[in-house]
Design a protein that fits this description.
The protein has one helix and 25 strands. By secondary structure, it is mostly beta strands.
Length: about 300
């Protein structure tokens, strides 16, 4: 860093720098004071107004316009951030924290504009947050938020101010979760075998996986599974996306190594791409006959 001959070259420091691709930009350079411990876990809000980060794993919010840095749990000591994600439509930060003194985990939603914690649907009293691998996943329009634990899906409905702990529970472990575009349904993987979270993707001690697809009822309070789109596999399934025909695109195959060998990997040698069958309400039943389950549609890789 060199601005008017004020150089940090060779100096050990832990500050935030802002760099611009515009050579004439005046905002490039040092953007924060020295960290108390170390800065990491940077995540910027959808409008670029706020930066979520940790200083020594303590969750903080920086308002980029003023460079104001605020600990969002300043009144509590010994807090470690486990996971956090910004809403795609509002300046709401959802996450999980660990109390280092009690080893208890807590879910939170922080409104960065109002500088307050939210308790939508009284979820802080409903949720027992000591879930393994608990992770917040926002719906695309920010109207719903799912906290995913090892064996359960816990819902916060932002629009209707409702909270539904244990909306869905499974016997295995939940590996991945995927919202539909309108958030009226979702899909997830139930993994048989080793415990893993959505960052792990291997076949070590692996005994198969099940793709589940659930749909909300009209009141958005309950969900039902569409068994026509349930996929059971002895191998690994990787969710890709919901399609405009309300099907789910996914990869299925067997990994030959527990880790990706390098930056890029040609999955076509070990995986195939598929679409789930059409949802039940789009299938035409023939009168007088019992409809057989439609097989997934294979796609070219």
């Amino acid at each position: 860093y060199n601005e008017n001959d004020k150089s940090l070259i060779g100096e050990k420091t832990n500050r935030i720098f802002k760099l611009s691709l515009d050579e004439n930009a005046k905002e490039s350079g040092v953007f924060s004071e020295e960290a108390k411990t170390w800065y990491q876990n940077f995540k910027i809000s959808r409008d670029g107004k706020y930066l979520a980060l940790t200083d020594g794993m303590v969750p903080c919010i920086m308002k980029l316009e003023t460079k104001e840095l605020k600990e969002i749990f300043a009144e509590r000591k010994g807090i470690t951030l486990l996971e956090c994600e910004w809403s795609p439509t509002q300046n709401l930060l959802a996450g999980m924290i660990l109390d280092d003194n009690t080893s208890e985990r807590y879910a939170f939603i922080y409104d960065a504009d109002k500088k307050i914690m939210l308790d939508i649907g009284n979820f802080s009293k409903l949720f027992e947050a000591n879930y393994l691998y608990a992770t917040p996943i926002w719906a695309p329009k920010g109207n719903k938020l799912a906290f995913i634990s090892a064996k359960g899906i816990h819902l916060i409905d932002i629009t209707n101010n409702q909270a539904k702990p244990n909306l869905v529970t499974v016997e295995g472990e939940i590996g991945e979760f995927l919202w539909s575009e309108n958030a009226n349904s979702f899909a997830f993987l139930e993994v048989k075998g080793q415990t893993r979270n959505q960052y792990h993707f291997d076949d070590f001690d692996f005994r198969g996986s099940v793709l589940h697809r659930y749909r909300f009822n009209d009141s958005m309070t309950q969900v039902t599974e569409d068994y026509a789109q349930q996929i059971k596999s002895r191998h690994t399934i990787k969710l890709i996306t919901f399609t405009n025909t309300d099907q789910i695109m996914y990869l299925e195959g067997k990994l030959v190594a527990p880790e990706v060998p390098g930056t890029f990997w040609d999955l076509s040698k070990s995986f195939n791409a598929f679409l789930t069958p059409l949802p039940t309400n789009k299938l035409k039943k023939e009168s007088g006959t019992e409809q057989e389950k439609v097989k997934p549609q294979q796609l070219p890789m």
